[in-house]
Each structure stands twice: as structure tokens, then as C-alpha cells.
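Q: I have two molecules that I believe assemble together. Could you output C-alpha cells for the complex as a whole instead of separate predictions?
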Amino acid sequence: MKILESAAVIITGIVFGLFLLGVQRKLVARVQRRYGPPIWQQFIDVAKLFSKSSISHGFVFDMGVMMALGGTIATLLFVPIGKLQVLSMSGDFIVVVYLMAVASLGMAMSAVNSGNPNASIGVMRALTQMFGYELPYLMVMMGMMFAYRTSSILGMAQVQQGGILNWNLFRVPIGAIVVFISMFGISGKKPFDTPIAPAEIASGPMVEYSGKFLGSLTLMHALVIFVDISIFVNVFLGGASNYWFFLLKVLAVFSLMVLISSVIPRFRVEQVVTFSWKWPLFFAVIQSVILVAMGVR
Amino acid sequence: MKEFELFFGPNHPGMHGNFSVHLRVDGDTVVKAKPVPGFLHRGFEKLMERRLWIQNLALIPRICVPEPDINEMVYAMAVEKIAGIEVPEKAHWIRTLILELGRIAAHLFSIGGIGGATGLYTFPYWATADRDSVLDIFEHISGARIYHMYIIIGGVRKDLPEGIDSLIRETMDYLESRIPEYIDLVMKNRIIQTRLRGKLVLTREMCEEMCITGVGLRATGVDYDIRKYDPYAAYEWVDFDIPVGEDGDAFTRGYLKLLEIQQSIRIIRQVLDKMPKKGPVNVKLPGNALKWRIPPGEAYAHVESSRGEYGYYVVSTGETTPYRVHVRGASYPQGLYGIEKYLPGTRIEDVPLWLGTMDVCPPEIDR
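A: Yes, here they are, computed for all two components at once.
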């Protein structure tokens, strides 16, 4: 039974993640006054990439890609999608944060091993800006764990039941905004796309990947976006009792992110850290103090 | 930190054109920059010596892809000066119209590049789409979208088509309505401002040292514009201002281009109002054009391109072909000396902005 559930979750993640990327391309195209590719274009691209031969740059290069994809799939299994959750335990949020880092590190390890200076600079930027957005994110989440006395994602979703006004979006509004901003960083959206800045470092870490490696990393990117927004939906938007309703919420949050990021340029790498440590961290501290001192109303 | 060698171009998303800059970077900071031209070398100047005077008209627009008309204009001006040809009045007005349309197209293209370099990809798409509306006008007038070959020695190739007046006016109204949107999207954007303000500053001394003209010089407060200082075509009969900045940074250069688009729209409207409705648009060259010789002599003609002073020095020895043609590309100084001398010390993020806001146009370097 667990195997079937795992398969369902992974297929949901991949299919819906790629669908989200297709929606992104279409939405961005409309903002840019273009027609845009068909919404299933991303499926065609990934299928094409997996059918191509690929160039390897050594064992660590290969392993890093597998680590990144594997780490993300492992994360996905901890995320409740509606009522569907394969692996659950009392502290699964902490596990998810840890596994997401494994994915980033796998990617960094692999990209640096390709020996391209663009990739090295990109990885350096990615790891630098992780300090920026992860800190306010974790601070808000820790505050909420303390306030609700639970570190389980499903537990966090369950306490919000009983109407829209019970959502953490309205109970913990400042924290919701901080996490929403940090999500742009985690999913590599502008203004936090400094590591893959094409005009500066020619797509940074991605520069040496081709064929199946690029396909795997596209899948990873789709899954990271899906996992990231799923956590937001579970923690702040009350989760969902219905599978389809959950996906609808994810789509809504993602569309909002895409529309915002399509009219924002890219930060310089030091601006990411100064911005994140100035405003989101400031509000994260305020929100944590409120949560710890007064709890959740 | 370890130094890297980074090849910025010719195959690089941040590089526009066949050009390369070899960077040595320490972390994110550029330590050494070496421009590497030559990927595009077709030897325009040498090719011109092998072609007849009128054949060159088909070759020279290729020197600058975003704004080809200035080449035809400046070549025609130089040859007319040597041969002593008087251009009819209506041709002057039509030339002004063409040059200003070309300036709008080139400026839209190049400020769109700011969006490409900073990651605001919506802006290049908008700007390129709006540039296309100008190209539509060119297609109606000359039959071609990019290389028009419309300005010829002695005037322009043919008269403006019927009904082009209303099309141009509509397009100008549309472009004017777009400028506030550009300002909202780009110039008022906080991230763009922090990335461009105070960055890549060209001082007046640097401009004088490297002979930089155009927007780069005007951004430092000098109102040098050849359209005012040495008027050609119909520029002395129309009324326009020269936008001037003070800071000399990348932001000012981008903003000045938007203001210049507004001035160009103003000029085009005046041209449409004041242009004579009838009259010849070119003078017929004497004799067989394929055997046409112009008297010995030499002349320098210059115009204000979207990037600065653009000049041709033409020498004739009385043959059917030019003896020598020298092209003064407007972006030559900032594309070669500027990169080598002033790029070190900036960051990798600034390199595409240097190329974008200074309008480095590789064919002008590789001429």
C-alpha cells in the first residue's frame, strides 16, 4: 500500500511540477505580450532530454545530480498532499528542511566538479544567498512550531481547520509574508535568480549539463517548486482535505509568484543578503517574538 | 580567492553581437579585461574600395544592424560633398524622417538590453515588439525591414507611399503612450535603480580622453549633439531639445535614451507637418551610373547616431570606386579602450551593463 502511495505522490509531484513550469512559461509570455509555448511543452522538453545522450564530467558530477534528484524526491514523500502523505512523523518539518539542503548541496557538488568557472561562480552565489533567505524562513517556522507545540506539517495543517479565518495566513500574517518572500529564493525565482543569471554567468551551475542530466535537473526544479509551495499551502493556507483542492491552492500561489517575479529584475548577490537580513529577517524577528510571547490567537 | 579566467563571449547570453571580452575575475570582481574583436571581420572598408560608388550602398548598411540608415546617410553626405550634388528639399525632410525612425528603433533595442542584463526579461520583449511597429513603417516606405538601402546619393530612392502619413502618426501616438509604462516598469524599479545608479560612471574627463560622444557624453552634462552643432538634413528647420544628464552613470544613460525617443517623436511629427507635399526626391546622376566617376577630393561627413558621432572619411581619386573609406564607429572607444581600461574593478554583473548601456556595436569595431 505504501509503495502505491509513494508512486502516486511521486507521479503527482513530477506531473504537476512540470505542469506548473508550463503554466509559468505561458503566464510569463502573456505578461511579455507573447503567445507562449503550449502548456505541455515542458513534458516534451523533458522527454526529449531523457532520450538524448549526455556528457559526464566524472563520478562526482553524476552522483551530485542523483543526490539532488533523490533528495528532492525524498522530501516530496514527507509532504502531505491533501490526505496523501507517505512518510509522516512528529518532526517531519525538520527532516524536510534538512533534505532540501541535501538537494542543494548535491547540485553544488556536481556543478563545481564540472570545472567550468561559470558554474563555480554560480554555486558560490547560490550558497551565499542561501544564508540570506533561509534564516528568516526558519525563524518564522521555528516560532510557529513553538507556538503550536508541533513540528509536523500535517499537524500544522490540522490546527487551522474550521474556516478561512483560521488559516495561518490571517493568524500569522507577517510570518506568511516573510515565508512567501523566502520561497522566491528557494525556488530560484527573480529577484533571487542570481545563481543562474544568464546574462552574467551563462546560466551558472547549469552550464555544463546536457541530455539526461539536464532532464534530471529540470525534474528536480519542478519538484522543488512543488514541495516548496506545498509546504506553504499546508502551513499557511490550511492544507486541504481534498487532493484536487490542494493542487488548486498550489497553482494559485505559484501563479501569484510567477506574476510578481515576471516584472522584477535580478538582485546582485550582496543585495540578496542585505535585503534578506534587513526586511524579512526584521519582520521574522518581530513575528517570532509575537508568537513566543503571545502564542497564536 | 582563486582567480578564474572567464570568456565573456562570443557565445554568451550576456553578449550581444560577435564580440568577446576575456575576463580575469577574482570571485565576482573583474581584475583584468581584454576585448577580443575580430569574430565578425568582413573588411567593410577594404570591400568598399572594390565596389562602384553606387554598389557600396548595398554594403554599408551591414556595418550597423540596429541602426543601418545612418551609414547610408553619412556615405551619401560625404559623396555629395565631393561630387558637389545638391539634394532637393523634400529629400532632406524624408531623410530626417528615416533617421529619426531609425533612432527610435535603435534606442528601443538598446534600452531593452538593460532589461536583459538585469534579468527583467519583460522589458526586452516589450521594447522589441514596439520596435517592430517602427519596422512596419520602414517596410511600407522602403520594402525592407532592417536594411533599407533607401537613402541614396542625391536624395532618397523613391517618394513616400500614399497614406503613410496616418500610419506614422498612429505609431507615434502609440509609442508615446508606451513611454510612461517603460518608466513605471524599469526606471522607477527599486532594484534597477540600485543596480544602475552610481554604477559604471563615465566622467567628463573620461569621455574627453576616449573621445566618447553621444549619450555617454550627454549624461555628463555636455549638450553635444551634431544635429544641433553641425545640422544636416532638415534638422535646422525643426525644433527639438537635447536631453542632458548630470551623473554620467548607467541609469542616466538609459533614462536619456527614453527622453530622446520622446524628442524623436516630436521631430517626426514636425517633419510630417512641414514637409512639402510635392517636389523631386532625388537628383539623377549624370551619365551611366555603372561608369559614374566623381571628381578627386576628400570629405568627412558625420551624423548623430543613437550611439554618438558617426562619421565617414571618403577619399576619391576620380575613379569609379572610392580610393579609401574610413568608418568612425561611435562605440569604438568605449568598446575597446573603455573595456580595457575602466572595466577592471567592476563586477561580473556590470559587464553586460557596460556593453548594453554604452551600446557597444561589434561591427563598428570590426569594420
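A: One point stands out. The interface with chain B takes residues 28, 31-34, 117-118, 120-121, 124-125, 190-191, 193, 197-203, 262-269, 271 of chain A (CB under 8 Å).
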